[in-house]
């Protein structure tokens, strides 16, 4: 036996330290002919088979008892296609040698990746079905520039890091291996020797599917087929259309009654979509569905950005779910978390021993903030955004925690810990540039989608185009309106006159941005109580308060968002581990009336253009009386494009009913009451205005004409 490879080199494989396996394994030219080397632990015998003739070329010699084989094919001076016939005891397998295949990543992709301008790196990195030299298989690539060695481990190699070390591309920091005959659904990870010599086992950052927690392996998967957005959906996502969003946590909307377990994507589609359509919502917004390890994070601490969580099924099922939403005329908005990721060992944290993806730990949440100065990280996130829009056909993206990204010192109270940019201010200029990049890229590629910011400060121009200094979002959550409104509505009735400004202050800025009015999941957890528990008074007054709150939200300028359970006035706080208490609507008329009210209100909103044609334009709103604090009443006009589409809104936030109440009207004529929240069908007392209301030339509220009516909660149309 002639050993043509140094023992130290052989040892490096079995010690898991070989960083350049292609320099050793596979086919190599020698002065005596072509040498073929193989690493096949536990194999008893290995033969080289010519693929064209299917004849044996040579039997490899075992040059190391641990499973390193080598032989020279004499009188051959050119490379050829071959297979290994491997004997493991009585088992004989004909396999392809991964180390005979050429590199498959091209120089341009490597350059673009390193620069951060590769638009869709998820089509390059990760695991992808392909062919090489006519052989089907899966090409694996991972970015780990500071690792000393990376191996592919999985169901196909006994999770043995010695068997499939990967090829390193120094120009990009990418490791690559084409594995013939790898199959759909097989589990895998990357085994790394990091820059400090530590062994790390990492899930694929670009995996399209993952194991169900608590297991953490990636799964070989494919993206679903792309379905083009229809004209109907394009129109529905425009800001001059009604937008009433139903916010849903997939694991707790409804659960299996037998075992309190989750419904899968197909079951949720069968039950949720008809319900949302029946209730009149236009869009569903899902709390983050990217793979995450801890149920209690609700999806906001992500490990697998490119994988819909396996809790409810596979990627194809999730895509089918979205398609079913679209077929029902319902848009889909996905919650996205670029502000940080969790520290779980199998995830992105210290991926190759260095802070590869991360910059620092978030002081409030214990997550790791992305290093947005790295082109590869920006490319990772932007491409993730594009994948949800292109491959899953999402109608919109709600970007979580925008404020935490925009400020260098968000959550930092200690002055000694504060940082400042080169201008001497606290803005994170890299983060704001990144958000502009996200919005510009997303809307260039998909112009008919919604980009929505959860931004809780007064950062200027959030929904303005980047070319005028804006961040480029389409919509922004109005946290100020939400906090003021809830504070007012939980104030007991005698004290409301002194807090009247909380109802009206939003009119000072309501058209400065394109706002969403949110009653989100954040408002019904962590001891804040459910919405109805915040309402003062007895049972009847609490439900009446919920109707007033909903009517105020629906008639105020802006898009609307409500978290699941709000529509039935559930008394308990939301719990991620159990379903919404929809049985209340069957057992208690009050909850059924509330549900009927929200349904009627949604459909009323959709059917009246005056409530949404100018939702973000001061042409759409006109105060009648903003100053009636003594009676806790506000009144205003919502304008449509046509005078016939105008609506007069009167909302009474007091428990008293006012007879012979005079209200100034925008024009002379005969008006009719078109919606009344005090109707008996909604659980109210039935004080309604059934007769047509003719204006009289009595000046009131600064108007030339007025009407007399019973004041409760009303909408009037001409």
Describe the structure.
The chain has 718 residues and is α+β, with helices and mostly antiparallel strands. It folds into four domains: 7-100, Immunoglobulins (Immunoglobulin-like), CATH 2.60.40; 107-219, Sandwich (Immunoglobulin-like), CATH 2.60.40; 234-610, TIM Barrel, CATH 3.20.20.80; 618-717, Immunoglobulin-like, CATH 2.60.40. The chain has an eight-stranded parallel beta barrel with strand order 17-18-21-24-25-26-27-28, surrounded by four helices. Strands 29-30-31-36-33-34 form a six-stranded antiparallel sheet. Strand 9 and strand 10 form a beta hairpin. Helix 6 (375-390) packs parallel to helix 8. The longest helix is centred in the last third of the chain and has 19 residues, at 589-607. The chain is elongated.
Strand content: 25-35%
Radius of gyration: 31 Å
CATH architecture of the largest domain: Alpha-Beta Barrel
Assembly form of the protein: single chain
Structural class by secondary-structure content = alpha+beta
Note the overall shape: elongated
Neighbour order of strands in the largest sheet: 17-18-21-24-25-26-27-28
CATH topology of the largest domain: TIM Barrel
CATH superfamily of the largest domain: Glycosidases
Could you estimate the helical fraction of the residues in percent? Answer: 10-25%
Contiguous runs where pLDDT drops below 50 for at least 5 residues = none
Number of strands: 36
What do the pLDDT scores average to?
93
CATH class of the largest domain: Alpha Beta
Give the count of helical stretches.
13
Total domain units: 4
Distance between the termini: 101 Å
Q: Could you give a short account of the major beta sheet?
A: 8 strands, parallel, barrel
